[in-house]
Design a protein that fits this description.
41% of the residues lie in helices and 19% in strands. The protein is an alpha+beta fold and 416 residues long. It has two domains: 203 residues, 2-Layer Sandwich (Cytochrome Bc1 Complex, Chain A, domain 1), CATH 3.30.830; 182 residues, Metalloenzyme, LuxS/M16 peptidase-like (Cytochrome Bc1 Complex, Chain A, domain 1). It has a six-stranded mixed sheet, with helices on both faces. It has a five-stranded mixed sheet with strand order 7-11-8-10-9, sandwiched between helices. A hairpin with a 5-residue loop joins strand 1 and strand 2. It is globular.
Amino acid sequence: MVQFKREILGNGLKVLVHEDYSTPLAAVNVAFDVGSRDEDPEKTGFAHLFEHLMFAGSKNVKDFDEPLQNAGGDNNAYTTNDYTTFYESIPAQNIETALWLESDRMLDLNINKKSLEVQRRVVVEEFKETCLNEPYGDMWHHLSELMYQQHPYRWPVIGLVPEHIERATLDDVRAFYERWYHPANAVLSICGPIKSDEAFRLAEKWFADIPGGPGGFQRQLVQEPPQTEHRTKIVHSPQVPVPAVFIAFRMPGRLDPEFYPTDTITDVLAEGRSARLFRHLLKEKQIFSQIDAYVTANTDPGLLVIEGRPSEGISPETAIDAIWAELETLKTETLPLRELDKIKHRFESTIVFSELSIMNKAQNLGLFELLNGAEHMNNEVGLYMAITPDDIQRAARRFLTKENSATLIYLPGTRD
């Protein structure tokens, strides 16, 4: 249980504070309610571009990293389909440095021709290195296209094509910043050895004067219709050393009650060396040399993905058939309670361990506040622990179907 207090500033900024005196460090996290799903289909990659631009300097800070490092802190950021997070870890006595830096770039980011050109080159180069020149690097481009026809999840976080960032103008970028990166669209979470009253006072000092941003906005995303047929794509690439297979299924969004048993299915399949896919298909039958399963955990309906690399001499078709056989077992045979209890205990210990980290708590407070209120963060363990074998079987039968899936196959070499 993570105890916290919340205040909302006059400009709409939500401030969450968790007192933790087990460490001399403080964690500061700013989560913006913007991700790649909020981009124009002709101007994708902007949320990821801003992950970089936010470190390009602001009105009173020419170099974001230097004052933070001088204060003994470090920082990073990440972007998802649904939100963007910036965070700092710093000695608690220097927490104002982190708050000053975050407030300055929220108020007046340094967006000019030079900063845009520098970060544009960085992002385009990252696109080329991770997507175009990396084996299987464009996997999310293919899977997103297969699984989504209308919803903006149909392009990955890094963007659809590098040309969208190459063509970005100053007006485009400034408009995106003004629309999304303001107090009314953000959550500031502070965790560490600091009294809540003092943390709120500092938040008021550094953020209260920032304009709240445009009002009256309601996100209206095109919803993806139910999928009714299986989709397949085969990619031939000289960069691919060995074949690989990916099977994706549409699954519920993060707040849907059915999310929890569906997420737990990936633990049944691939969490640990005793999980079914590892034990049956890799260790016993040696059909795969590598196999995994995971969920995207999106706000809107996301994906459950199973990926693997068939062992030498095993065809992709044989490997895919073996995966489907395991899924059919989940649908037809009730999961032993002992197997589910083992997964629950592992999950519970993982949560307890993660809550030892003030940074994990700061980030989760911001994420859950954006989702449905940070109180939900403390309810999730109970939701997972209440899952029954019948819940697992029901979710498997509902979502792990052929017509609700797509298969992506990578093959070495070029098409004949």
